[in-house]
UniProtKB/TrEMBL annotation:
Biological source species: Actinokineospora globicatena
Source species, domain of life: Bacteria
Tagged with keyword Oxidoreductase: yes
Name of the protein in its database record: Hydroxylase
UniProt-listed SUPFAM superfamilies: Acyl-CoA dehydrogenase C-terminal domain-like, Acyl-CoA dehydrogenase NM domain-like
InterPro entries reported in the protein's UniProt record: Acyl-CoA_DH_C (IPR013107), Acyl-CoA_Oxase/DH_mid-dom_sf (IPR046373), AcylCo_DH-like_C (IPR036250), AcylCoA_DH/ox_N_sf (IPR037069), AcylCoA_DH/oxidase_NM_dom_sf (IPR009100)
Keywords (A to Z) from UniProt: Oxidoreductase
PANTHER family reported for this sequence: ACYL-COA DEHYDROGENASE, ACYL-COA DEHYDROGENASE YDBM-RELATED
Keyword rRNA-binding among UniProt keywords: no
GO molecular function, one term: acyl-CoA dehydrogenase activity
Residues in Acyl-CoA dehydrogenase C-terminal domain copies: 246-372
């Protein structure tokens, strides 16, 4: 019997279904965490476990038989999985974007490509590659990094600037460069085993390369010119659930140390940890910080969701509220794990202590393009009328 056999596999229909299945998967993911990290990608049975929770169909619209979780529910789903294994939650967060890509590709093309509701899409949408126009489509060349989940993906997206007759093509919106996202089967790319990292080892975020790959124009889209409507179809929709990973990591680490503190006694003094001031203070401080950032994340998502559903255009402050909350979640999660490692001290550095893995995971995810300090520059520039260095982190597509 595999771990998948212990989870009901009937297709989930509601948010309650998938959230319950995520909770049921947590102990199973914890059992496999060491294996996930050692293999540097998700083992096949872990992928099937995620599939059985509905991880890759959570954004599927209800009119297509999906649960269509809103951003708060998606974030809660990822947060729950992350308390089991951070790399698995990261891959679920990436893989659940397939229904969003389907909307931008159009119903007919999506039906042709995504023949199964649980198909997984991986890849980097930022324009790292080059797409040269040819009859019927593009010749795609380039090498992209950070293809999280590519080892188990069905389809791969790749962002590229479009060229015509060897020259950069202007965007229909007036920008000097035309950015498109192209999609092709995973086996059409060369995947390079480059993912030897400090943390998030199990995400399998390898480099991938296209060499004169023909992609039909219908298998590509541009955020800037798309006519897709609805609050769940904006370019930043793929960013909204990302805080779930650091929130779940911090929750798991804090619960782990609280369990230790209840049963441990200081070896030098014989005083129970539960009676030591610095232990009490650190646990309370970490709970305070996690609770505050969690409210910031979910509160900003709720406000944004209500405004989008009401058709109200976001002000600059309203636009960046979720961005600040997301960035802060990654910061606070790392800070909490560092404090907890300092509290537990030397025993935290020995494998297979999960604190060692959580610390490395927190450090690695903090380096993601949407969690770096330069995001704050982009927020400040947006609020002051300047030029953001990373406009996509704000959900702005040029």
């Amino acid at each position: 019997m595999t771990i998948v056999d212990t989870v009901e596999t009937t297709a989930p229909l509601t948010a309650q279904d998938v959230l319950a299945r995520a909770r049921a998967a947590v102990p199973l993911l914890r059992e496999r965490s060491v294996d996930i990290e050692r293999e540097r990608c998700l083992p096949a049975d872990v992928v099937e476990l995620l599939r059985s929770t509905g991880a890759f169909r959570v954004a599927l619209p209800k009119d297509k038989g999906g649960p269509e979780l809103n951003p708060m529910e998606q974030t809660q789903f990822i947060e729950t999985l992350a308390t089991g294994d951070v790399s698995a939650a990261w891959c679920a967060m990436i893989g659940m974007d397939t229904p969003l890509y389907a909307k931008f590709l159009g119903e007919e093309v999506a039906a042709e490509l995504f023949t199964d509701d649980d198909m997984v899409t991986a890849g980097l949408i930022l324009p790292i590659g080059r797409a040269d126009r040819v009859p019927g489509g593009f010749r795609l060349n380039g090498r992209w990094g950070f293809g999280s989940g590519i080892t188990h993906a069905d389809w791969v997206v790749a962002g590229a600037f479009v060229h015509t007759d060897g020259e950069p093509e202007a965007s229909p919106t007036g920008q000097p460069m035309h950015w498109r996202i192209l999609i092709a089967r995973r086996d059409q790319f060369v995947v390079h085993d480059t993912w030897h990292t400090t943390g998030l080892a199990g995400s399998g975020s390898r480099d991938y390369e296209a060499v004169d790959l023909f992609v039909p124009e219908a298998h590509s889209f541009s955020f800037a010119t798309a006519t897709v409507t609805g609050p769940n179809s904006t370019p930043d929709a793929i960013l909204r659930n990302m805080p779930g990973v650091p929130l779940g990591l911090a929750r798991a680490a804090l619960d782990h140390v609280r369990d230790i503190a209840v049963n441990r006694t200081d070896r030098m003094t014989g005083v129970p940890w539960s009676e030591i001031y610095r232990i009490q203070y650190t646990i309370a401080e970490a709970e305070m910080e996690l609770g505050a950032v969690r409210e910031q994340v979910y509160g900003s998502l709720r406000t944004q969701w209500e405004l989008l559903n009401a058709g109200i255009e976001l002000t600059p402050d309203q636009r960046v509220a979720t961005v600040l909350a997301r960035t802060n979640a990654y910061r606070v999660a790392r800070s909490i794990v560092v404090k907890l490692c300092d509290l537990v001290a030397t025993s935290s550095i020995y494998k297979p202590s999960p604190l060692d893995r959580w610390l490395r995971d927190a450090q690695t995810m903090r380096q993601h393009v949407i969690a770096q300090d330069q995001v704050l520059q982009s927020v400040g520039a947006h609020l002051l009328g300047g030029t953001p260095s990373n406009p996509f982190s704000l959900g702005i597509v040029q």
